[in-house]
Specification:
The complex is a heterodimer of chains A (304) and B (253). By secondary structure, chain A is an alpha/beta fold. Chain A is 36% helix and 28% strand. Chain A has a six-stranded mixed β-sheet with strand order 6-7-8-3-9-10, with helices on both faces. A four-stranded antiparallel β-sheet of chain A has the order 2-1-4-5. In chain A, strands 12-13-11-14 form a four-stranded antiparallel β-sheet, with helices on one face. In chain A, helix 3 runs parallel beside helix 5 (139-151) and helix 5 runs parallel beside helix 6 (169-184). Chain B has one domain (30-95, 107-249). Helices cover 75% and strands 0% of the residues of chain B. Classes of the chains: A alpha/beta (304), B mainly alpha (253). Chain A binds chain B through residues 14, 49, 52-56, 74, 77-78, 80-90, 92-94, 97-98, 101-102, 104-107, 133, 146, 149-150, 155, and chain B through 9, 12-13, 15-17, 19-21, 24-25, 28-29, 85-88, 90-98, 101-102, 252-253.
């Protein structure tokens, strides 16, 4: 399996002073669904825009399907498609017009464009509203129009920048199954998201990017194993949270405190809770816990 | 073979962009074409009410020009809207033809809004001013096409500077005024009292096409040399804006 996208020591600044990307290095394999996770402003969209040939890197290289994004931008552009973050279709045109004419603009013959437009509008559950102007569609439907446009192309690599933001759970599930379908057809899908459930559900591998640096890359299990804590303990009803610090990193969530800890730490904390009358809930750490730790600062600083 | 294939693809891309951004939205709201027609129409009405018939042909040529200008300069807000709000420009960049057929399609889409107004003013020019020579209309078409191309490029160039769509709302009326009403578009160049100002009027890309149309309608008399120079001037205007735009689009971001 070759690399669909490879970045090496990628740096980007818009103003010459503040660096949005600081040496980001990662590889996305062909045919996989790859999720790029990061906080707001971590550099996800900038990375995507550089890989899509829409932005020039300040330093470093990015190769898409083996070609350089600067030297071979034209070649790459024909083989990729993007769904921009928070984009929306024109209110005065229909979903059908968007998908069909976009495919024509990409060079597809009319009959093929019509066939694929029908197929993907149906797949994205937009067939019933294909002739309704987008201004009369819900926000979620409009979002799906753009995804249908990108998916219906012949592109080998799809970049989806937060494609499920604002979608209801059912629409999200539809989108996820289409993303997986694209991967099964051999296409590479790179998704940026804040939604950990999404990343766990659809991606073969993930990267966490923090402050312009790739903190960790791997399967969900590998990313979670990068965190030394296997359990999380939610504690409620205690007076002084200071004493929880002995078990691991503590975070306040509303009225309770979440402690990430080891198996022995979880056992010990549960016993203490029973003795003191605290309410506790013990579970395995999730990707979200790993993300908060890795993108939150502490562990990333140690890793550096 | 490759060139022919590229050309076919270019035309198809332009067609797709025109349909998506011009024809379909126009069908949804044909009233768009009414707005740029109103000011020149009102001017025409005043002239008719006051009985100043000899100026009517100038007002008709000026009206056609200003309708094309008003509908072409909107390229600045349309392109910026597509880039900043819809974010669809980045999707169209990732096509075989890239940005150019997308932009040409967008500009053609704007021209569709100008067609009803041009037809009304053209019909009036034919009936009221008696302009019915084929070659006159060929000059009109060429001059208006050049105006459309240059002003659309100016609009697109301005759009590339926008960081917020509201920055641009103010420019369309300003440029429509500056390109349509200040230079000798509704009046002959000879009416400008100072020679220096006459030359300065040629800075506007609408002065040359308006003068060519005035000459084609028999309103002013120009030599073949002047006609040639006017067409050359249009070429120079177009080339300058094209180079500026090309450099701007190739800039490192």
């Amino acid at each position: 399996m070759g690399a669909a996208v490879e970045s090496e020591d990628l740096w980007k600044t818009y103003d010459g002073q503040n660096w949005v990307l600081k040496g980001a290095t990662l590889t996305v394999n062909e045919g996989e669904v790859f999720a790029l996770l990061g906080r707001n402003g971590a550099g996800k969209t900038t990375f995507i825009r550089i890989a899509c040939t829409l932005l020039k890197p300040s330093r470093g290289t990015v190769r898409v399907l083996g070609r350089d994004v600067i030297a071979d931008a034209g070649w790459i552009r024909r083989r990729i498609a993007v769904v921009p973050q928070e984009g929306r279709p024109s209110n005065l045109s229909t979903p059908w017009a968007h998908v069909y004419y976009y495919l024509i603009a990409r060079g597809m013959p009319r009959s093929e464009a019509a066939r694929r437009a029908s197929e993907y509008l149906e797949a994205m559950e937009l067939w019933e509203v294909k002739d309704v102007i987008c201004g009369n569609l819900s926000g979620g439907m409009r979002q799906r129009v753009y995804v249908a446009m990108a998916m219906a192309t012949e592109a080998d690599v799809l970049f989806l920048d937060e494609p499920t933001i604002g979608l209801d759970p059912i629409s999200k599930t539809t989108m996820w199954s289409q993303i997986r379908r694209a991967s099964e057809e051999g296409r590479t899908v790179i998704v940026t998201t804040h939604n950990m459930e999404e990343a766990e559900t659809i991606s073969d591998r993930v990267s966490i990017i923090n402050a312009g640096r790739i903190v960790v890359t791997g399967s969900v299990e590998e990313v979670m194993s990068a965190v030394e804590y296997d359990y999380r303990v939610d504690v409620e009803g205690m007076a002084d949270p200071q004493e929880l610090n002995a078990y691991g990193p503590v975070r306040r969530i509303g009225d309770r405190f979440r402690v990430l800890t080891t198996a022995s730490g979880a056992r010990e904390l549960a016993e203490v809770a029973v003795e003191r009358g605290w309410r506790v809930n013990v579970s395995k750490t999730s990707l979200e816990d790993a993300f908060i730790l890795l993108a939150g600062g502490h562990v990333e600083d140690e890793a550096r | 073979m490759r060139l022919a294939e590229g050309l076919v693809h270019f035309v198809k891309s332009v067609y797709a962009s025109t349909m998506l951004f011009g024809v379909i939205p126009f069908k949804q709201n044909p009233l768009w074409s009414l707005s740029p027609m109103l000011a020149p129409m009102a001017f025409l009405l005043f002239l008719s009410v006051y009985g100043i018939r000899e100026i009517v042909p100038y007002a008709l040529i000026g009206g056609m020009t200003s309708i094309v200008v008003a509908n072409s300069i909107t390229m600045e807000s349309d392109a910026a809207f597509n880039r900043l709000i819809l974010k669809i420009e980045s999707m169209f960049v990732l096509t075989r033809g890239g940005l150019i057929p997308y932009a040409v399609g967008l500009a053609l889409g704007n021209l569709i809004n100008a067609l009803p107004g041009m037809l009304v003013f053209g019909a009036l020019l034919w009936t009221l001013a008696g302009v019915n020579q084929l070659w006159s209309w060929a000059v009109f078409l060429g001059a208006l096409a050049a105006t459309w191309a240059i002003v659309s490029m100016v609009g697109y160039y301005i759009s590339t500077f926008a960081r917020d769509i509201r920055d641009l709302w103010v420019y369309s009326p300003i440029f429509t005024g500056v390109f349509s009403y200040l230079p000798p578009v509704f009046y002959p160049l000879e009416r400008i009292p100072w020679t220096e100002l006459k030359y300065f009027a040629y800075v506007s890309p609408t002065t040359a096409p308006a003068r060519l149309m005035q000459a084609a309608a028999g309103l002013v008399s120009i030599t073949w040399t002047e006609a040639l120079l006017l067409w050359l001037l249009l070429l120079v205007h177009g080339s300058i804006v094209f180079v500026l735009l090309h450099r701007r689009l190739r800039r490192p971001i």
